[in-house]
Amino acid sequence: AHTDRTMHALVVGCTGMVGSNLTTHLLNNQWDVIATASRRTCPEQIQHTKLTFVGGVDLSNASVCREILSVVPNIDRVNVLFYCAWKGTPNVASLLGSAAPLNPDEEGQVNLEMLQNIVKLVEEICSLQRVVVVHGTKWYGVHLGPSKISYKLPFVEDDARPCPPSLFYYLQQDWLSEQSETHQKWKWTCLRPFTVIGFNQGSSMNLGTSIAVFASILKHKKLPLLFPGTLTSYQTVIEASSVVLLSEMMEWAATSPTAVNNAFNCVNGDTTRWIELWPFIANLFEMECVPPNSESESDVMQHVKDCDEIWRQIAQQQNLKSVPLGDLFNPVFFKAVMSRPFDVYSSMDKAKAAGFQKSVNTFDMYRELVATLRSQHVIPS
């Protein structure tokens, strides 16, 4: 653990899974933390006597950022900026009907400006030394797949960029590189996790929670654990990024001289397939596992359609936290993620060579997440 009391962090975007878990990790490791979010209330998950929470921060508005942050006590001591924010719509948003997706050019520009606004402010009013930014495997085109781009496996950090240049990851990293070189005051690191798995409250686009809620509903209906994807997706190679591992790697990126001015993949370090992982998950829930039997669109998802009232009953009977199903589970997101028809795996060689040696067993990660969701009364035990 990093115990140097001179480490002062500003965590931007502290209410999502990555930001909230990072905030808790840093506080547990004796960092002083100022955490910001666009929402005004501090999530219960990160409340801590040593945390300074600043709500209502609109990163797209530079003057509002300045007005709010410049008066925060001890902001001048911040020497590491952890950037966990983004604006736009997830890849399945157009299917969800919840928001019109931003076009890629607009999404790229909006997200670049948000990062620029906060970095420029922090380098002016703080003692900034490091900027650590969370990106992802969208860098490699995982959202497009082999039918649309030159899709190369494993994902290696310094390979040619396969996506259009408007992708905001590209824009942000290029700007950080140029800005850091120009000012010579601070250094940057970008991390690229795949699907991040871990505990977070109030996000329906959280694959780990989605699987647990899906299994809980099927079990309540006395059904086996059916697979919501296709025969192809059941057999593809998959990986994951533990949010615990990502938090540890972000701290490493902020404090290690070998991490500077570079990008690194951040995945558990093992690969698996749903054909191996799904029976394991079924066993965690003491359910029979039923694999998909054909490529045709199965009607598995009908079992979790319009289950808001059923979930309320489950929560009442099992003394669970009163969280609406819609805040825990999004069927369109879940179906889309579970139906990915191509392999995904990232190389961790570059991170290992730079000194980050940690790894996580994906099966253990799911077992621990289910245990946490039970102990936190999110799903039945």
Please give a structural write-up:
- The protein is of the alpha/beta class and 381 residues long.
- 38% of the residues lie in helices and 12% in strands.
- The protein is built from 13 helices and 13 strands.
- The strands form 4 sheets. Strands 3-2-1-4-5-6-11 form a 7-stranded parallel β-sheet, with helices on both faces. It has a two-stranded parallel ribbon with strand order 7-10. Strands 8-13 form a two-stranded parallel sheet.
- α1 packs across α8 and α9 packs parallel to α13.
- The longest helix has 22 residues.
- About 2% of the residues have low confidence.
Total count of helical runs of at least 4 residues = 13
> Mean of the pLDDT scores?
93
Structural class: alpha/beta
Considering DSSP H and I runs of 4 or more, what fraction of the residues is helical? 25-40%
Largest sheet strand order: 3-2-1-4-5-6-11
Give the terminus-to-terminus CA distance.
Answer: 32 Å
| SS strand fraction | 5-15%
Identify the notable features of this structure and list them briefly.
381 residues, alpha/beta, seven-stranded parallel β-sheet, two-stranded parallel sheet, 13 helices
